[in-house]
Amino acid sequence: MTRILLVDEVKVVNYAGGIEKVLCDFSNEFVKRNYTVDFLCLDLEKGQPFYELDSKVNFVNLYYEYGSYNKVKYLWKKLHKEILRGIYGKDFYLKNIKDPKRDFFENEFISRLSKYISSNIPNIIICASGDSAYFVEMALDKLKLKIPYIVQCHIDAHRWFEFLQEHQLKAWKNAALGQVLLESYIPIIKQTGIEKVIAIPNIVWPVSKNDRVNLDISHNTIVSVGRVEKTQKRHYLLIEAFAKVAKEFPDWKVKIYGEIDDLNYKKELEKMITENNLGGESFFAG
Q1: How far apart are CA 164 and CA 204, in angstroms?
Q2: What is the pLDDT of residues 168-210, one digit of tens each?
């Protein structure tokens, strides 16, 4: 039976992120089609993904699979990071010094991933990001295995370049395939010399009639769901747009649901709300 391994290097346990939703959906659909599915992460939090997983999906948190971190070494790496930030300043540190805590995490992930793959060899690997692909590539090199892997891009490809690092680009180029969300993103990715790229949009599950709000009644509410963050979610556009029509629709309001990524950005939005006299209509719902 074909074995599929999904790898996500960011938070997964109890985390309601969009990438995690996609990977859980992928996992559930694969097992319905009779594939064997392993879903791997390395997360210090104990538990399960926020989104429902089919009982046949083998969810593995590598942090607990092979014993937790050497706490003394981990704490030293955290302290080392803060010492360097204090000496060189945050901006210089971010641009010029490799994060010792991040370096420790990467080495742990690659080591534990190698152990898992050696005992549970997959036929194909799906990587949630360029970093995940890099970890997979390093693990496969360590094991001297040739297993095809797919690397995914879950963000606007125009912004992909902002985060792209040399090791990630190498992992993309060595992948069997790259996946983006829109057809228009393909030529953007290919500018870097990456040739094998396809577009697969995120799926949308239809809501059953029993679960739908009663649309015969006007609720006069515009709802935005997503973390409050400037460059990707751009709630300021929603507030700007609503400000243009708010006086014509005094009974309407805006509710923004999502965690606050940036308190300074939230203050900017609150200032916009105040300046446009939207205090009673627009608010953050948590």
Answers
A1: 28
A2: 999 999 999 999 999 999 999 999 899 899 999 988 888 888 8
Residue among 179, 104, 106, 101 nearest 138 (CA): 106
Parallel, antiparallel or unpaired: strands 3-7 and 36-41: parallel
Q: Which CATH superfamily groups domain 3-67+101-199?
A: Glycogen Phosphorylase B; (3.40.50.2000)
Torsion from C-alpha of 153, 11, 47, 24, nearest 10 degrees: -10
Cα–Cα distance between 169 and 133 in angstroms, integer? 10
In sequence order, the β-bridge partners of residue 179 are: 152, 198
Q: Which two tokens stand for residue 158?
A: 């125009």
Check: CB of residue 243 under 8 Å from CB of residue 250. Answer: no
pTM: predicted TM-score of the whole model, two decimal places: 0.79
Q: Please report, for residues 104, 105, 111, 256, the alpha-carbon distance to residue 99 in angstroms, rounded to integers and kept in the order given.
A: 9, 10, 18, 34
Q: Are 127 and 149 in contact (CB under 8 A)?
A: yes
Quick one: CA dihedral 108, 111, 114, 115, positive or negative?
negative
In whole angstroms, what is the distance from residue 151 CA to residue 172 CA? 6
Torsion of CA 264, 271, 219, 207, to 10 degrees: -20
What pLDDT was estimated at residue 88? 66
The superfamily in CATH containing domain 209-284 is Glycogen Phosphorylase B; (3.40.50.2000)
Q: How confident is the model at residue 76 (pLDDT cuts 50, 70, 90)?
A: low
Which tens digits make up the pLDDT trace of 20-59? 999 999 999 999 999 999 999 988 889 999 999 999 999 9
Q: Hey, is 121 helix, strand or coil?
A: coil
Average pLDDT over residues 222-244: 87
In the chain, CATH 3.40.50.2000 sits at 3-67+101-199, 209-284
